[in-house]
Amino acid sequence: MLFRSLALTLALTAALAAMTAAGSAFAQSNLRIGLAEDPDVLDPTLARTYVGRIVFASICDKLFDIDENLKVVPQLALSHETSADGKEVTIKLRPNVKFQDGEAFDAAAAKYSLDRHLNMKGSFRKPEIGSIDKVEVVDPLTIKLVLKEPFSPLLAQLTDRAGMMVSPKAAEAAGDKFGLHPVCAGPYKFVERVQQGRIVVEKFADYWNRDQVFIDRITYLPIVDTTVRLANLKSGGIDLTERILATDIPAVRADPKLRLSNSVSLAWFGLMINQDNGPKSENPLGKDPRVRKAFELALDRDAINQVVFSGEFVPGNQWVSPQSPYYQKDFPVPKRDLAKARALMKEAGITGKLAIDYMVNNAPEARAVAEVVQSMVAEAGFDLRIRVVEVATALKAGEAGDFQLYGLTWSGRSDPDGNSVIYQTCGAPQNMAKYCDKDVDAWHQEARAATELEARKAIYAKITERFLDKGWIFYLYHPQNLVTHTARLEGYRPIADGIVRVVGLKLK
C-alpha cells in the first residue's frame, strides 16, 4: 500500500507539474506577423530585403531611429554633435546596454560594427556610410566618426541597417555565417529560422528598454500570396500583416475585428533596364535611348495605379514621392503618348515586336503590374516576356546581369540620398545595370556635402534632369504602407518607412 500510495503521489505531482508548465506556456504571448516574402540573410551588413528590415526591428537596435515625423531620434545613441566643418560627428552612447549573448555594448563594440559595415566583403552598407574615413573610440561610451568630407545624410543612414550594432564576439566567431544566428542589442533574441517557413524570436530579458516590451515571442511567417495572408489574419492564424492589396482595403475597413493603418511610403517601384551588365544588355532597350523613351511613353502611370491599386498608391517618376520636400516639380510624371512612342520605335529601326525579358518578383501586385505594363507597351511594339522568380533569386540574377528589364521595389529612406546613390552611382552594389555617369556621381557628392535643403534640392534638380533622360530606371509609383492587424493588438505606430516597431506592442 505504501508503494502504491507513493506511486500515486508521484503521478499526481508529475501531472500537476505538467499542467503548470502547460499553463505557463499558454500564458506566454506570441505575436504572429505575416511577411510578403522570406527575407534574405539576417546579417545587417549583407542584407538587402525590405522584409528583412522588419525582422531586424525586433533583433537589432540601431544608433538612431526615425519617428512619425521622420525626425531622427536616438536609440542606442544618446546624443550627437557635429563639428563646425562638418567632418567630425561625436556620438554619446547609451550606458548599460547588453548584446543578446551577454556582452556589453560600448564604444569599442560600436566601432567594431561600423568598421564591419565599411570593410566586410560584400557589404551593402559601405555605400551608405562610405564617407566615414575612420571611427575613433573617445572613451568607453563615446565614438567619433571622422569623415572624408561633410555628409549630411549620415544620421539618416544610421537609422537603418548601417546603424545596427552586432556583438563583436558573435560576429568574429561566425564570420560570414553570422546571418544564420544573429546576435545584436535589440528587444528580442534570435531563436530559429526555417527557410520559407518561419523566423522565431523571443524577448531578451536584459534589453535596455525591457519595461516597454510586452510580448514574449514573435513568429514571422512568410506568406507570399496576399489573399492567403489576409485570410490568415481574418481567421486568427496571424495577428498582423505588413502588406495587403489595395483592392482589399474596403473589406478590411468593414471588418470590426481588424484595424488598417496606411501612410504614403518612402518606397519606390521602378522598371530597371540592363544597360551594361553582360550579354543581356546587348539589345535595343539597353543600348538605344530612343527605344527606352518609346517604352516610357507607352506607360500610363495613373492607369497602373487605378487598375492594380484602386487609385490608392501615388504615381511618380522620381526616387522621392511628390510629398517629399526634395521632389522636383519641374519634372512631372510624363503623360502617355503612344503615337510618339511608335514613331521613336520606327526611327530606331524596330520592325515587328521587340522581345524583352521582364524579370519580376513573385508577389501578387508585382505580377499584376507586370501584366498591365506588358499590355500597355505591346501597343508600341514591345513583346514583354514575364519571368516570375523569388526575391532572393531575382537579386542574384540582377547581380549577374541575367535580365533585360527588372521590376523592383526599394523600401525607401528618410533622406533622398538613401533612395538614389546605391542605384545611380558608378560601381554601387545595387547598380545592377552598370549605369555610370561621372557627372551624376559628382553631383551626388555635392548633395551629400550640402546642409541646407534648398541647396541640396538645386543639386538634385541636375541629377533628376540627367538621370530621367539617360538613366536606367523608370520610376512608376510610391506605395502606401498598408499594415493590417487584429483589434487585439495595441500600440502599433505607423511610420512612413513601413517598418513594424515591436517595442510598445501589446496583445489584449
Structural class: alpha+beta
- Total strand segments: 23
Span between termini: 49 Å
* Percent range for β-strand residues: 15-25%
Total count of helical runs of at least 4 residues: 17
**What is the second-level CATH architecture of the largest domain?**
Roll
Largest sheet: 7 strands, mixed
What's the CATH first level of the largest domain? Alpha Beta
The CATH topology of the largest domain comes to Dipeptide-binding Protein, domain 3
Radius of gyration: 25 Å
Q: Please give the domain count.
A: 3
User: What best-fitting shape do the alpha-carbon axes yield?
Assistant: globular
CATH superfamily descriptor of the largest domain: Dipeptide-binding Protein, Domain 3
- Overall pLDDT, averaged? 92
Q: Return residue spans where pLDDT drops below 50 for at least 5 consecutive residues.
A: 1-26
Question: How are the strands of the biggest sheet laid out side by side?
Answer: 10-11-12-1-13-21-14
Give the helix proportion (percent range): 25-40%
